[in-house]
Amino acid sequence: MLGIKKPTPNVRSVIGAGMRVTGHCTFAEGLQVDGVVLGDVASDEGTPSLLVIHEGGRVEGAISADHIVVGGLVVGPVLARERLELLASGRIEGDVRYKTLEMQPGAVVAGQLQPQLTPPPAPPTLAVEPAPQAAEPLPIEPTLDARPPKPE
Fold first, then answer.
1. Is residue 129 part of a domain?
2. Boundaries of domain holding 110
3. Has residue 73 been placed in a domain?
């Protein structure tokens, strides 16, 4: 329903300013990045997730979560399964896939924006029986202007 927001997951983990993490990172619920991550950052699928990259935070690798807020720098592809928010200080260098996008003036995306459209429901199909097919081809009836075929 309009006007009712889903509860956002809590930020349970923080990569603090001055901290540098190298390698693939996975998280549950919420992660805040104020430092540097050199590697992919992905949430556990199946539960709502929030990834916040604050101003001064940087991720060099692919990121994916349900809800992503970028106020820092991301160098790599981004997959926001539900919502992507780009703050004025946010910068993404890579292709971006999202379902919903909010972008403040000043935010930069150097890559392709690819909305993940929800396919429309399939139209109902009608049960149509195939027309019966003739067992033998019908004979060709002569017409008034029938001319003999020309020899080749």
1. no
2. 13-115
3. yes
Structure confidence at residue 134 (pLDDT): 58
Three-state SS string over 3-33 comes to CCCCCCCCCCEEECCCCEEECCEEECCEEEE
Note the pLDDT tens digit of each residue in 37-50. Answer: 999 999 988 889 99
Residue 127 and residue 108 in contact, taking contact as beta carbons nearer than 8 Å: no
Residue 29 φ then ψ, to 5°: 65, -90
Which residue do the tokens 């998280």 mark? 27
- The pair of structure tokens assigned to 76 is 């790599």
Name the percent of the chain in helix, strand, coil, to the closest 5: 0, 40, 60
Q: Is residue 82 situated within a structural domain?
A: yes
Residue-wise pLDDT tens digits, 131-141: 666 566 666 66
